[in-house]
Structures are given as C-alpha cells and as structure tokens.
C-alpha cells in the first residue's frame, strides 16, 4: 500500500488542488487535521463548503481519512465542548472521519477527533481501547492531529507543543504508526524531526510549508519505507530503522 500523509493545509486552495492532483497515485490519503483556517478572511461556512467538495473529489480517486484539528472546530457537542461536526458530512462521500475505523484484513486506521475537553478525551480513549480489543495481528495506524509530547515531532524550536495524553495512550496501546501534524516547525528546526520512535510506535509529522505544494510524507507499507518531501529536499528512512 502507498500512503500519503498531509496535514495543516489551512484552507490553502493551491495545496488542496495539489493533493487532489496526486491522490490517485496512492492507495490511501490521510489528512491529519486543520483543513480550515480560523484566521482566514473567508467565512468558516464558506471554507467548510469548499473543503467538503475537495474531500468528495478525493474520495472519487482513492481511500481518504480526515481527522479534525484545532482549526476545524465549528460547533459544540452534547458535553458543551468544541467539535468539528461539519466533518461528519464528508462520510456521505465515503471519507473516513472522526470516530471511525478504516478496516481491512491487514490494516486498521483509527481516526481520532481533536479533543477540547475531558468528555471528548474520554471518547478518544474509549475509541482506542475498542480498536485495541479487535486489532489482532493487523497493522494499526492512528490519524491524530497533534503529535505526542516530549517528541522531536512536537518541537517548535522553543518548546514541545504535543499531547501528553497521546504519549500515554501510545505507551498503553502500542500502535504501529501515528500520523500527525499540528506543529508546523518540527521537521524544519534544530532538534525537531519529521519522524520519531516511541517504543514500538513510529510517529510522523510532515510539518507545514508555504506555497502551492505542502510538505508531505509517503509510506510504502510493502517496503516499510517512509519519505519526507519538502522544499528542503527528500529524506528517507526504513520504519524498522527509526530510533
């Protein structure tokens, strides 16, 4: 399987166009949050309508996973915590979104929402526990917007900006891969990285760059090769050799 990871597109239409132009080259496209941008001059409802059209287009080309990020929150759930309710509308197009599991004979992808409070955090933990009880010997991938705390994939150049609960869940459930974003700088700053290992788990964060092409990561599950591609060039690592 060939997998494409992008994140933090932040309603940059040329970058969404690029993802749409290459989507059919991959078996799975994962958009790890922040499809919208709260600082945009475009109204949130208009952004949502456009992004839903892009997700629908992507789903005609390949299998698509999209999890929410902190910029994607447009409403409040039953617990009064902010949520990305709009993203659920993409399910009608076949997109796997927050709270869902994409399952095959060899693979499970768990799509985690951005949590804005303790109730949603508990929902995510239950989602992971449910998946852990059913995963068997399949490869387990999480789509989770924030990288874990105390990892170079969450390093801004000044401090770690990751999720402490994610780090705890990785230790408890031990997935194979965590596909994240959120911390734009990590791959580009000293002591940061686009890839890290926590026990048996490999964490990836493509970061964010300006321009018409996002920074992105390709994973070939047959060869276990991961490639980070950005304006700085290409970096490659075999997943088993990540330390």
Q: Which range does the strand content fall in?
A: 25-35%
Strand order of the largest sheet: 3-2-1-12-13-14
Q: Between the first and last Cα atoms, what is the distance in angstroms?
A: 23 Å
**CATH architectural group:** 4-Layer Sandwich
- Please give the number of β-strands: 14
Largest sheet: 6 strands, mixed
**Structural class by helix and strand composition:** alpha/beta
Number of domains: 1
Question: CATH superfamily name?
Answer: Metallo-dependent phosphatases
Oligomer: single chain
N-to-C SSE series?
EHEHEEEEEHEHEEEEEE
Radius of gyration over alpha carbons?
16 Å
Under CATH, the topology is which?
A: Purple Acid Phosphatase, chain A, domain 2
The gross shape turns out to be globular
Kindly describe this structure.
The chain has one domain (2-241): Metallo-dependent phosphatases (Purple Acid Phosphatase, chain A, domain 2), CATH 3.60.21. The chain contains four helices and 14 strands. It has helices at residues 13-22, 44-59, 118-132, 164-173; strands at residues 2-6, 28-32, 63-67, 75-76, 82-83, 101-103, 107-111, 139-143, 177-180, 195-198, 201-205, 216-220, 225-230, 233-238. The strands form three sheets. A six-stranded mixed sheet has the order 3-2-1-12-13-14, with helices on one face. A six-stranded mixed sheet has the order 6-7-8-9-11-10. α1 runs parallel beside α2. The longest helix is centred in the N-terminal third of the chain and has 16 residues, at 44-59. It is globular. It starts with a strand and ends in a 5-residue tail after the last strand.
